[in-house]
Amino acid sequence: MIERIEHVGIAVRSIAEARGVYEALGLHVEAIEEVPHEGVRVALIPCGESHIELLEPLSDDSPIAKFLEKRGPGLHHLCLASGDVRADDARLREGGYQVLRPEPTRGAGGCWVQFVHPRSAGGVLIELSEGDPHPPGGPA
Predict the structure, then answer these.
(1) pLDDT digits over 55-65, tens only?
(2) What is the pTM of this model?
(3) Which residue of 46, 81, 90, 123 lies most exposed, with the fewest beta carbons within 10 A?
(4) Domain topology for 2-130
């Protein structure tokens, strides 16, 4: 079951450069984490009950690098907090929606994640995430 908007993912070429506008608005980077199996460095910015997630590629062949090459910086995905990502995954499959992974996998912060293909979601990449990806006291 979906509980809330967890975060909005924004593809950037450089976290160091992109974070400035959010900091000028009074927000702060709570933590930065590398997720090597996804080829991405992630900066987490709390914003109310949700987060903004800046996504910087770790290599030129990572999915985020390919996204930036094709579309440029900007909105990459919408993440919804799930109380049971496996049940949501099964419900989507049963409904004929296209998901990107054979089953949920570990993502940033050790959360279980699954992605819904934009073709099945009105052009929006949707991430479903179960767990707390933002433990207090992470490095920034």
Answers:
(1) 999 999 999 99
(2) 0.88
(3) 123
(4) 2,3-Dihydroxybiphenyl 1,2-Dioxygenase; domain 1 (3.10.180)
